[in-house]
Amino acid sequence: MAEKCESDKVSSSSPNLICPLCLDIFVEATILHSCGHTFCRRCLNKYDLTHQDLDHMVCPLCREITKLSANRVDDLRLNVSINGCVDDYHAKCGGMNAVLEMCQKCTPCKSLKDAVSFCRTCNYYMCDECLHCHQHLTVVFEGHEIVSMDDVIEGKVSIGHLFEKCSIHKPENKDMFCEDCKVHVCHKCVLVDHQNHKIKNQVNFEQELRRKVTGLAQRCADKKAELEKNIQNIEIQRHEVHTAVQTLLDDVRQAYSIKAKELEENLRNLTDQIHALQNSFDDDLDVLKLKDRQRIKSICSSITLVDNDRLGHLETDTLSAHTLLCEELDVMLKEVTDHTSAEAITKKAREKRFKPADDTRLDLGSISGSDPKMEVIQRVDLRGGMHGMARYSHSTVAIGYGWNAQGIDIIDSNGGKQRYSNISALNDINCYDLVLQRDGAFCVSTGNTEAHIYSPLGSRKATIHVRNSLSLRVNRSPSDEIIISKYRKEVYIYDPTGSTLKHTVQTKHNTNQASTTRTGLIVTSSCHFDPSVVTVYDRDGNAGESLQAPEDVYLYATVDEQDRVYVASVDMKNNNVVFRLYDLDGLNLKERVEFNALNMTSVWSWHLVSLSPDMLAFACWKKLIFIKVSL
Fold this sequence. Notes:
Elements: H1 2-13, E1 29-31, E2 38-40, H2 41-49, E3 56-58, E4 65-67, H3 80-93, H4 98-101, E5 117-119, E6 124-126, H5 128-136, H6 138-141, E7 146-148, H7 149-153, E8 176-178, E9 183-185, H8 187-193, E10 199-201, H9 202-306, H10 316-334, H11 341-351, E11 353-356, E12 365-368, E13 373-381, E14 386-391, E15 396-401, E16 408-412, E17 417-419, E18 433-436, E19 442-445, E20 450-454, E21 460-465, E22 473-476, E23 482-485, E24 488-494, E25 501-511, E26 513-516, E27 522-525, E28 533-537, E29 547-548, E30 553-559, E31 565-571, E32 576-585, E33 588-594, E34 598-599, E35 607-612, E36 615-619, E37 623-630
Antiparallel strand pairs: 1-2, 3-4, 5-6, 5-7, 8-9, 8-10, 11-12, 13-37, 14-15, 15-16, 16-17, 18-19, 19-20, 20-21, 22-23, 23-24, 24-25, 26-27, 27-28, 28-29, 30-31, 31-32, 32-33, 32-34, 35-36, 36-37
Helix pairs in contact: 9-10, 9-11
């Protein structure tokens, strides 16, 4: 009550010294220079705490923007005029709490005597004389509720709400609030100047405002608790993020370790090759050296026999023998000395060059000038008609059978065979082609229009439907996308689940088999179609220059782990096959090596698969061969 009385006195007898934010007398009144509105500095600091991300302050009253410097509110200037008035007020009242000690003056009369009572009905403070009149003029004041000022000061009773008097309509209380104009008014002001405005009773308005402030305070507390809980969750998530990043770092380090081991193995292989070359050249030079030493020994032996002091004492037969020895020695001396073979070996050694690997290959490179070799290391008879083949590991293949034999066999480079029984459903189907995904799932073509994906546990995960196909051929990319060709001028690329068709690549020729590189290029083979071609495409359908086979020669291609392309040329007339190794030059194929021809009985529908950088598998109707490649 005392504080309210002080505010009433301030607002009625002095310039407005009440801060709009805290509704108390200004403390360090600070002005917003953009609009001139004044607030306590501490109130502005509290208000600014919720807007630290802004370089300005929005006035709480008029929404004008005031730019802030680096020190924010501390650099705003004080309202010297208001602060002076506050100081004067405090000096007159004896300090901030003087109102609690001073006596209220009588309101009805002009005597300015100290009030001894308060009439709750009239809302007036009264001196002794006015109290006497109030008590004896019962006709006028009968029923008025009067309380003692001692009880008011001691807090025993409350005098209720005190209204400011209207400056225009002097006797009237400002007991109304206009929400449109944001001012306190009396009921006469409402009738004159505020018709059709939204008017509220001031007591009700203040109660609503208190409820609103209470609600806001509760919401602030709830929001604060929510934000503090969110901060705790952020720290929990930070820990999770650090764990995930550490896992990522561990994976990278593990991958580096694996690749480093591969490079170390590659280095050892290259070193062994170089040492083998040195030993080979040394052996060749030793052979030349041995031959010359043998000739020297023969010449020395012959001259010892021929150059004999007893030559004049020899008999006729012995002279004949000496004559023969002389002739033989003469022939040996006439033999041309080999002055070039050693230099030729030196030249051959000097021609050897180290060819660094390009940026797309994870190895150091190769030694050029080495004699590339291709050797059949295993021939395996198949139990039925082979329709599809896929890489199963670095030394094993999966063979799919159709028509007269069903299911899948796993065959290794040592000739070992076993039925694939992990997925029982595959034992009873015609398998026209197949490919093993990285997670152990099989994608199997079962005819002309469907390919099924089976999980490692045997359940069917998805079915891919393709129209207008002669026979579906399947493969996968290094990222496990499913590649489908169908003896038409199209290649389809599905996501690893088989549920989404990502690309359809139009080709210039009918495509039987398709492989992909690590960079996403597609190497297509038309195989026994005429013309038989191998062409490289990108995902947009742009094509390089095709390799085209002569008549009755059919091309089969595969891509190895280093993005090198092997092409098998099957010659149906001469019953042989020639393998060539190509490097990719953009979308074109650049021949690196042509291997010696291998004799094979020509059969339609060959399949070529790269198992590792130095191992190929080549299969036809009922025959499978494993081929070792040495570069």
